[in-house]
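Quick one before lunch.
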Amino acid sequence: MSDALSISECPYGICIWKFGWYRGLFVPCRVISVRDFLMHTDEQGRTLSCLMTHEFIIYRKDMVVTMKEKLEKIKAEAIRQINMSDALDKLNDVRVNFLGKKGELTAVLKSMKEVAPEDRPKVGQLVNEAREEIERVLEEAKAGMEKKLREAKMKAEVIDVTLPAQKNSVGHRHPNTIALEEVERIFIGMGYEVVEGPEIEKDYYNFEALNIPADHPAKDEQDTFYINGDILLRTQTSGVQVHEMEKGRLPIRMIAPGRVFRADEVDATHSPSFHQIEGLVIDKNITFADLKGTLAEFAKELFGEGTKVKFRPHHFPFTEPSAEMDVSCFKCGGSGCRFCKGEGWIEILGCGMVHPKVLKMCHIDPEEYTGFAFGVGLERIALLKYEIDDMRLLYENDIRFLKQF
Ligand SMILES: [Zn+2]
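Model of the zinc ion complex:
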């Protein structure tokens, strides 16, 4: 810069520096210190000289061109990186690297102080144009990438709208349930109460209170599921009757439907778990005639108006006298058919007058009160009513079978 000392203008014509007495207000970009004499002519024509240190402020005239080239390079690099990006987070990296606070465009703006003031708007505009261009390409790439992602997702979750809709399958009442509701309806209509009890029962309620002492053969026959010596899975719902009698609220008119358990092998007519409906009536002056009348009415309601009943003597420990009731075959009306095995009658339930010993054990005076009880297998009714010949069908839960009822 030694040449510059003899002249007052930039010797290269690219700077706008001046020197002399003038100390301008330019923002310095490159400061050159010069120590020398300077000769000046002031306005009055006097020659002045001084030894001084000048600080020159040099703006490069070519800064606009340089900046433009630099911006073009940044822009090209940004677009190159954008085009190479294959994921949204990579695009975001490009955005941060070029447009962010510490990005390359911001760095260009920071070097603005090197640009002559009159050129700054031009450079500012160039920077803005570059920023807008990069942003536009970024947005396009992002939109394209999002679209691709969406399409890939849609492809992955293909929905064939031509497939038939999946129908909601509506539940269906089990034949056992239908039969139970029918029996309950009949007895509720006759003023009976429906009572339920525990499936896990004490030996006392299942056997002893029903006049089946420990050494009674019935206890062996039934081959019970014992939980321990005293607690078992009930073999009959009769225990519910004992619970009701013990409450001491008389008279009683109840039916006790529920699941019972016996150690039977599974076959067409046996299952280790099945259902019973037991009935109990205790009141003053209850006789066998009440039993017959009630059960005859029940049979008519269940199997049809023309149904006849027949009682055969039988033995149950908890009733005396005891009987089994048959109904006239509702298929052939009693003349005999394949359904009733030619007999004209179908065995339907066991019944009898409550044994005085049972009443006594439940603290009911057998001299004052009498009663009758009956028990019917729920499955037996369902099988008869729907002419199902294999009990196992009721437990297999085959929808195709169950849907028929
Ligand atoms: Zn018949």
